[in-house]
Amino acid sequence: MSFLQIKIYRGKFIAYTVFVVLIGLAIGLLTCAILLYQWVDNARNESASAFAGIENRLQYDADRIEAYMQRIYSNNGLMTDVQSFLGSSAERYLSSRLERSRFDQPLASFPDDMESFLYSGGQGDIVQVSLHTDKTGNLIRFDDHGNASFKFGLSNNDAAFRESIERGFVYRKKLSDPNRISRQLGEFRFLVGSDRLFQSSGIYQAALIDSSGRIYSGSSDSPVEDEWVSQVLADGRKQGYLSSGGLNGLFFSTFTSTKRDYRFVTGVDLGMLIRERLGTLLSVFFIVLTAMISVLILIVYNLRDDARFLQHIIHSIDRVKTADFTPETPAPYRRNEYGMIARELEDMVRQLDKYIRTEYLLKLKQQETEMKALQNQINPHFLYNTLEAIRSRALVNRDVETSDAIATLGALYRDMVKHDNIITLGQELALLQEYLKIMEFKYPDRFYHQFNVDEELLELPTVKFWMQPLAENFFVHGFDPGSAFNLLVVSGWTSETHFNLEIVDNGRWITEDQLKRIRDTLSHREETQSKSIGLHNVNTRLHFFYGEGFALHLENNEEAGVKVSILIPKEAVCHVQTSDCG
């Protein structure tokens, strides 16, 4: 039967499926959101690093420009060549250099020295240097490799000197007469190119914005980028998100320079970010989907097994209702409530079947048992009468010893039948003594026995006829018919927590292997097939009577024979009376 055919399991499956799908989607979306946030945060950190790099390069260029100005003032040759460079043409510059040169000194070249100094660090950010008078200016232009080109006599209003964020940042330095500081000879203008600064940032979507709002985005035709920069400026926040609907949006960051009058703006397009990291997002989706499918398979497996066990439970109950106890294959055990109930119900069916069969057989044999009980009541009287007849015949023939032995045997059997199942230890010792008298008759002048038992132990309750099997073991296994002195001693005394009994003989030892087997048998009180069945039965009966505190130990004596030690706990005796199983 499919579990989907059971309404309760069908509802559970639908509920579990909806729950797993919702949880899976929530985990997947949350994971993707965390990844996107991390990627955007990394992009913002990269933007901050790029802005710090631009600021450092601007400061580096400013420091080198300042150092070069100090170099000009400290070098008379360079200062002289700079003054010559103020001429309105290249010819005048060259002729002025020749006029001011001295044959005893090397000829200094201001353009060559500046090119070597400014580009010695390999930065190459300064793309143009110009030297101006009130109306004109002379220009030195450096290409990407640091090679210089010159223009002379350009108007100060020329496009080559126009200042804008697209061209770069201009550093102005006054050129004063070294002989008279208050007299200004001209002005240096150093142009740090925006292209080179922007390219060094390494940011794909970025822009430089000057104080007037003009935008430089690294390309001459980028209307889309100019548009998002305008939106960022209008937003006014330092960082945030501009949505264009759906997955079209932009995460932006704005940085304001403390060294120059400009702002650095970067953006991360959400759609482009998702496309670039689509592989990672698909991996997350696949992992979540796999986990959802695995959980659903596990749910289906458990629901199917639960439904099977429920069916087995219902089937077992139906069998009990119809009294059908035919043995069936038990349900596989599962460590859950359904599995336990199914197994227990199956066991209940088997136990009921066993109980009914047992009760039925008992009723069939009850009458037969009652008839045998009536017949068995006659047997002891027949035995006693027979023994008495044999005893009388022995007396007639004047065989006193045979007569006494027969009388002792009859008394022993009479006491065994007459006494209750639970007697005192004194009565049990009396039964043992009658048995030992018979053994003395069997082995005259070769067997002796002795009892040393404190009177306090004689009133202890105990089960009937357990000492005789222990003594009988001595005659079966340890007795030496060739010896003139076979001795059995029974001792009993009281300790703080136990009553102690010992049965000691001087017969043969038990081998170590056999002693180990007997001890193993005594430690397991279930049914045994070993040769020590009498000792095992005694141990089992006394354990059952006195409880877990009882102990029976078997060991070899140092000189000869075997010792059986019995410990009876005092607290166990307090709960047992001689009339308990009368």
Q: Assign the CATH topology of the domain at 422-573.
A: Heat Shock Protein 90
Q: CATH superfamily assignment of the domain at 422-573?
A: Histidine kinase-like ATPase, C-terminal domain
Structural class: alpha+beta
Quickly count the helices: 16
Distance between the first and last residues' Cα = 59 Å
Task: Tell me roughly what share of residues is in helical segments.
Answer: 40-55%
Alpha-carbon Rg, integer: 59 Å
Query: Quick one: how many beta strands?
Result: 17
Overall form: elongated
Unreliable stretches (pLDDT < 50, length at least 5) are 369-379, 577-582
CATH architecture classification name of the domain at 422-573: 2-Layer Sandwich
Strand count, sense and barrel status of the largest sheet are: 5 strands, antiparallel
Which range does the strand content fall in? Answer: 15-25%
